[in-house]
Write the C-alpha cells for this entry.
Amino acid sequence: MTARAVAGVLVLAFLAGCQSLQEKQKEATYAPTESVIEVVAVLRRHVPDDTYRFPPGRDYTGRNVYRASLLRLENLEKLHAGALQAGHLVEVLHFTKARALERLRAYDLAAQHFDKARLNGTLREDAEQGARVNAAIAAAVRIGLQLSDPMGADSAVPLDEEAVVAGLDERISLLTTLLRKDLPAPYPAILREEIERADLTRARYFSDMRRIIPDGNLRAVGEWQRVIARHGPSKLERRHMIEAANLYADLAREYVVARPPATLDFDPPLFRELVDGATHLYEAVAHQDGTPEKLEASRRLEAFLAFTLQVDSERFSQ
C-alpha cells in the first residue's frame, strides 16, 4: 500500500471517530447520569439562585438547569427502574424532582413530590415545608385572570375590569403574605416571580382592552409604568421597558392614522409626547450592552424613528 493510500485510510478513520464522538455527545445530552448524586449536586448548587433578579442557571449543555435535571432524573428512573425498587433512594428522588418542579411553576406536582419525600428523616423538615409552601403558591396562582393561550380555544378576554383587578390583587396579597414570612431560598425569588407575573397579567389585560374601556389608552400606559416601577430589580426589566415602548409606538401610529399630519386636526405636542415616551424607553434599553434586548430595542428604535421622520415631512408646524 502506498503512502498516499495509508494517509487516506488514516484520515477516513479519524473522520469516522469524530463522527462517532459527536453522535455520542448528542445522544448523551439528556442521557441518564451515572449516579443520582451527580444530579442532586448540580441542582443543590442552584437552589439558592435568585431567579427573580437573574436568569436561571445553565448546565453544561447550555440548557435550563432545572428542566435538564428533571429530564435526567426521569430518564435515570426509567433506565434503572429495577435497581430503584429497593427503595433506598426513593425519597431523595422525590425531593430532588420537587426542587426542580417548583422552579418550573409546577407547584401542585412539587407539593406531591415533597409530600412523598417526608418519609426520609433527614429530609422531613424541608419536605414538609416545601409541600406546605408549594400548595399555598398553587392555590394563590389559581386566583384571578390567567394568561390564556392566544392559539387556544378559550382565549376570550373578560370585560369586567374591576373583577380582573380584584382577582389579581387578591392573588398578589396572598403571595405577599407568604413573602413576609421570611421563608428560606428558593421561595423569596419564586414568590417575587409570581407577583411580577400577576402584575404583567394585569398590564397586558389593559393593553388588550384599551380600545373598549373608558380612558383605556391612559390606563394601559399607567399599568406598564406601574410594572416598571414595581419590578426594577427584575431580570425582565428591559423586557418590560420594551413592551411599554411598543405601546407608546402603537399609540403614535394609531394617532397618525386617525389624525393625518397634513390636516388641521393633527396636534404636534400630543404626538411628540407619544414619540418621546417610546424613544426614551427604547434608548434606555439600547444603551445597555451585553443584553439580548439591546439588539431588539435598537432595531425597533430605528424603525420608529423612520416613521417619525416620515410624519415630520408631511405635517405643517404652523
User: Anything to note?
Assistant: Residues 236-318 form one domain.
